[in-house]
Write a structure and sequence with these properties.
Number of helices: 3
Radius of gyration: 21 Å
Order of helices and strands: HHH
Helix content: over 70%
Distance between the termini: 68 Å
Largest sheet: none
Strand content: under 5%
Shape: rod-shaped
Structural class: mainly alpha
Length: 80
């Protein structure tokens, strides 16, 4: 029991690191959203239906980060 303070210190440090990492992620996602939103609004205002290229909010962050440009490559091919 004399070393219980180690648990407290490790827990506190890990908690602060997780909160910091979450905040960095949140700010990045917010900036990306604010950059992409005008493109979607503009495309909807012009022709009332976003095209595949302009519909940038339809993909998730996971798809954008790890799939890259693959979705746009295969979006133009139709499966019949």
């Amino acid at each position: 029991m004399p070393n219980i303070w180690i648990y407290g210190v490790v827990s506190a440090v890990l908690t602060v690191l997780v909160i910091f990492a979450w905040r960095v992620w949140w700010v990045k996602q917010d900036r990306d959203f604010r950059i992409k939103l005008p493109k979607v609004v503009r495309s909807v205002a012009v022709d009332n239906s976003p095209s595949i290229d302009e519909n940038v909010l339809a993909t998730s962050s996971w798809e954008e980060d790890f799939m890259g440009d693959m979705k746009s490559k295969y979006a133009s091919k139709s499966i019949a």
